[in-house]
Amino acid sequence: MRHIQNTIAIVLCLTTSAAFGADWFEALKAKDDDRALYAVLAAMPKGADLHNHNSGSIYPEWWLANALASEAQGYRYFTKVRINNCRPFDRRDDTYHLLFRNIDQLDYDGLDDCERGEFVALSAMNDEQRAGWLSSIKLDHNGEGRDEFFQKHWQRLDALLFNPYIREQNLALNLQSLAAEGAIYAEIMVGVMGAREADGAPISPQRMIDRFRDRLLQPDIVETGMTVRLQLTLLRFVDDAEDNLRNLYRLAAKNSDIIAAVNLVGREDNDKGHPRRFLSTLRELRQQYDVGLAIHAGEVDEPNDHVRDTLLLGASRIGHGLNLITDDEVMLLMRNGPYLVEINLISNLLLEYVVDYSQHPFPEYLRTDIPVALSTDDRGMWDSTLTDEFFVAVKEYNLSWREVKKLHVNSLTHAFVDEDVKQRLIDRHTQQMQRFEARIQRDGLENPESLPDTRTFICARYQLCD
Fold first, then answer.
1. Residue 442: band (very low, low, confident or very high) from pLDDT cuts 50, 70, 90
2. What is the pTM of this model?
3. Which parts of 287-418 fold into alpha helices (H)?
4. Alpha-carbon torsion angle 216, 232, 171, 405, nearest 10
5. Beta bridge partners of 104
């Protein structure tokens, strides 16, 4: 983790209210001072993060701290630090050779002496092992991309993903972090299936939702002032996905006070999860339930009909939408329309769906009036922040201040909340932004108190670190 100097001073020549409308931000960009620009974007009020995976948004050090803290609830974990070649090679399963894969006490007790010798308790890791463990669940080396992310990160986390205490604590840290950046609303994608007690006893999906609800009422989350809704995630390519979708719709309808939507997730280039697979099931479910639907679509680097088919499924928000640019008719359909594309710039670069930002269609969508909003996706695994997404957008695409503000408003306008809640959020953000602009107009921006520590993505790519 790096620190940006807290002595950044931005001197702006502001003479009239009319000049303030645009000129101050253009003057700031013309200074070509990335630190000053980052300071402004860090301090500005933000709207919502609409595309946020709870398990992927947790920084590695938080994962480790939560895993160790859960020992008080009876959980104990071990991680693989060496390979003793205890098993014959199995071409169908390469998880045996995956270093830093985490297992719980029950699984550890079931191993023979040879395999036990490959693991060490998380609490007993030495400095070198701890550094390797932290590095293993983020993309921090050249050559790591979507295969490392989809096929190794989640497999390494393994048993940690099913700990209800960790799920709850991850949610709290996730929201506290977004609030510290100035966000006022978040929709967090959570898993509610597969949770288990320390003794292996299963926890029902409804009980997991109840635990999330109780956690959201705790003071450390309430004090953030954020409005929060959850999305239930469905892994789209598993064999029983249709039955899981039915269960999640039923749970979402029953718990509509905190569950805003269902979201189809998972690697989109696994064709078993193609959107039309779910058309008949969703038509069946709409006979009974009114549930929000957001779907990952177009997160691929070849043309297909997934975005078109996702709209046919009834989704009103598209996660990523990279290859929407290849479908002229749907591009026209979405202009000034009710559908929003959730843009994840850092994710798309690190997972190599674009080689560089000149290939990304985001500015085409934004400037042809297709509704878009910036979001963070799995920021813990990119080691980035919501502020970073805005910095990348401004730096790479020369966004105007009007466009920056439009992105915030879009994120709130397309939230899965009742209209009265939505209007309160928009009014709150508008007031915060007016105060922010008035402060800049009056004083400039000096020593911004909210300037956060920078993380490794923005540090490495833009040298925004000391």
1. confident
2. 0.93
3. 306-313, 328-334, 345-350, 362-367, 379-382, 386-397, 401-413
4. -90
5. 77
